[in-house]
Amino acid sequence: MRSFGYAPDEFEQAREVAFHRFLAGRAYPKFHVYCAVADDKKSAVLNLHLDQKQPSYAGSHAHNAEHSGLVVEAEAQRIQS
Fold first, then answer.
1. Per-residue pLDDT tens for 42-64?
2. What does the H/E/C string look like for 36-66?
């Protein structure tokens, strides 16, 4: 993910590691990717979305995120190619 311009994120679970890429030189908007090893152990599964702004309420993880659309699709194509 580093070769695509992404940096490791603080989030990490047993099966997933997160990365982010800032778009405007500040914290938001940013692309956010959760990565996991596929069941076949030969490939990766990426969950990509675009965070538009930070969570609105303290202690909340909910935020304004786009999981589809032209910008997200273009970034997915960039990573795949």
1. 888 999 999 988 776 665 555 57
2. EECCCCCCEEEEEEEECCCCCCCCCCCCCEE
Q: How far is CA 6 from CA 50, 58, 61, 72, in A?
A: 13, 26, 21, 15
Length of the chain: 81
Q: What is the DSSP letter of 1?
A: -
**What would the two tokens of residue 19 be?**
């990365």
- Say what the pTM is: 0.78
Alpha carbon distance 35, 21 (integer Å): 14
Are the beta carbons of 21 and 9 closer than 8 angstroms?
A: no
List, for residues 25-34, the tens digit of each pLDDT value. 888 999 999 9
